[in-house]
Design a protein that fits this description.
By secondary structure, the protein is mainly alpha-helical. It contains two helices and no strands.
Length: about 110
């Protein structure tokens, strides 16, 4: 009987060490993926923020320029708003599923890689 415990005890210690190591590896992989996803989101978010500010400024300039051409400044803003309404409708009806598929595939590939 003592002979069996001599074989089982080291085996149980190795299994315990393996379990702890596997759990630590899972924690480290989770931290790696989380930090990768967050850093990507922050860097892309900052680029989107800068481009959004640029877009707002250029749209105000275009609206004022068109308003100057049409004689009333608010006509330019109506034209720019109409342009974006048409663009939004086109994106909604024709590119909504394509954009949704691309974003979900990107998220899945980042999580799995």
């Amino acid at each position: 009987m003592e002979e069996k415990t001599l074989y089982i005890e080291p085996l149980l210690l190795k299994a315990e060490t393996y379990g702890k190591t596997s759990l630590e590896l899972i924690k480290l992989k989770t931290i790696d993926k989380t930090s990768d996803i967050i850093s990507t989101a922050v860097s892309r978010g900052s680029v989107v923020l800068v481009l959004s500010i640029f877009s707002v400024m250029i749209n105000i300039a275009i609206a004022l320029w068109l308003g100057d051409i049409f004689g009333k400044s608010y006509y330019g803003f109506f034209c720019v708003a109409g342009f974006y309404a048409v663009c939004g409708l086109v994106l909604y009806f024709f590119a909504h599923t394509w954009i949704k598929k691309r974003v979900s595939n990107s998220i899945i590939s980042q999580i799995l890689n």
